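Can anyone check this?
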Amino acid sequence: MGMYVGRGRKARRCYGFDEIALVPGEVTINPNEVEIAWELKGQKYEAPIIAAAMDGVVDTKFAVAMGKLGGLACLNLEGIQTRYRNPDKIYERIAGAPNESTTLLLQAIYQKEIEEDLIGLRIEEIKKAGVPAVVSSIPQKADRYGEIAQEAGVDIFVVQSTVTTPEHISSEYKSLDFKKFCKKMRVPVIVGNSVTYKTSLALMETGIDALLVGIGPGAACTTRSVLGIGIPQVTATADSRAARDHFFVKTGKYVPIITDGGMSTGGDICKAFASGADAVMVGSAFAKAKEAPGRGYHWGMATPHTNLPRGTRIYVGTTGMLEQILYGPAEMDDGSQNLVGALRTSMGCVGARNIKEMQNTEIIIAPAIVSEGKIFQKVQRVGMGK
């Protein structure tokens, strides 16, 4: 499989969301009657959508709002929330800063040391509202922060970096032993990010409970342009799904696949599930929510695998409430709202009664699917947002 890109040098063809389409089923289903819930270590969650650990997306108030709507939101333990006791003032400073001084401001903001007592405090703030507390850390900090988070009653702990492998070689710092870490944690451990079959399988063998898939597809992530690495999300998800299924047959343990990044519309999310995902992690779609602390801005150091220079700021607009983005009704015509409704409708159209059946729906390679016959959309800007 693949093609030659030069004499003796072969490359495998991989696919992203814009290059495939889902085939309608021979039987259709009422969208209100499909089951979209997913399960993590015996716990069921109603909406299979997780808000990414970006400072401009998730604070404690956003996490509570997301939890009450049936989803999960991941709080970054190495961002503004754990560096400042009153993070709202920091967000106000960033939002009000002129563009020419933003870089220096953010560099100064992220120089402040993390206050470990704030880790427990933020988790308690989320737990008081009766919703699951999900937090994220890079591998180098996971041992320490995992211990603190567990004592505070965290429900899910995420270990995340640009590229995660079960074995990391370094003479400068101690590498995280995933097997030991998973054994000592009494809560589900989600690990990422990876994109290949072998690495996905190796990470599952360490005892993780779910796997994040995706390197460089995020709206604010520059890994692919800066480092030149990554695999398009459809192929990455499908390969990881194969590892998940092989591991399940071998061990009887089912490790959910969470496609992370590259999805800005309901259609992208539907294709992620058809490629094999059990859940998805989304950032940019929620950055536009009025509840997002960034008020429509992304900025550097938002996630462990965002390689933007500190201080980079991208305006993405503020459109809609969180509930509207998840459940509608949609006011935008670009697919960025009513994400759950889009998933339900797509599942109904392909005849999938649940996520497992959605993972097996027929996929075709269709590079013209986005542009075919869309002359009026281009001229009138229909489907492109406001």
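Reply from J.R.: I decoded it. The chain has 16 helices and 16 strands.
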